[in-house]
Protein 1
Amino acid sequence: MLTDFYHLQPSNRKSITASYNAQGDLIIKAPLGYPTDKIDQFLAKNSGALWHLKQKTQKKTYFKKEIFKESFKKFQAIKIIQERFAVMHQKAILLDIKTNQPIIIKIMTSRWGSCKNNGVICLNLFLGLLPIPLIDAVIAHELCHLREMNHSKRFYALLDILYPSHRQCDQDLRQYVLCR
């Protein structure tokens, strides 16, 4: 039995999934009452895929809100985001994309940014810890939502004009994980 090698999270799901947390622990989510021998079979059958998943997970950077216990880091992150927003907003204005609403910067655990119908853009405080091109890509994405509130072809055509390297930045952004 392999139960010493993973943490089981019973859930109301119909299938088994495996993932690694920030500490490198294997997390198995399985239906309530699922037999451990079936979980062991799943692990044996998928051992190669789990090894590759672990390698990918080890290369990721995990962000936890505790990083902002030192207030200077928080203020530094806010300053960087505000500066990058000003730069990207000036570029967006050339495409007739603008907002008069102040941006909101807060810690979010599931997204880098959001845009509301009323023109309010909310950005994740963790953005201030990322490389500048990734910050700019997220900001450009949210600014484009001021014109297109979906992910249609028109939205991506606009994003291609405002920030042509957004696709590579989207891939690079996957290296960073927001933790609850």
Protein 2
Amino acid sequence: MGLIYTGQEADMETGHSIGAKDANSGERVIVHASREAIQDYGPARVREVAEVKYDSGDLEPDGKVFVRTSDFDPVGNN
């Protein structure tokens, strides 16, 4: 599947929201990243992990992809 990032981003109290679309259907997808994930791994890595989670169907009940620091392999394999 994959995601296409729209460039729409916003800082929120709970983290950072990144707008995206499903690469196949064009359906809107919201990626939410914790502040810690952005600070520790940077926006590019957060987007990579978000795509992996999205492609595997690892979504929140509301359909968002939520990227947390726990989604990154501490050994650096993720």
Protein 3
Amino acid sequence: MKKLSEEIGRNFHTDDPSAIPFDYDDNIHPETIATSSGKWQVRINVKSNPELSVPAREFNDELMASHYARQQVQAIKTKLQNELVKEFVRKTIENIL
């Protein structure tokens, strides 16, 4: 059995080999803060589409708050990407017809 000579998933195009964090987007700004009652609050603002913003929601621990924020950011990114694809298809069809 032959071993691979390179690492799968390694990115040699950057100086920083670490993973890109889920909140690395200037358009989507998740906030996870500790409250005075010992809970964690998550709020997500979307600059380009404020209707996709998520109002504040409280969680009992930081892990659940972070998990929720990660899921919501991924859902927002998917919606935004789908809108771009729909717009591209619409414009392509208009140009053909």
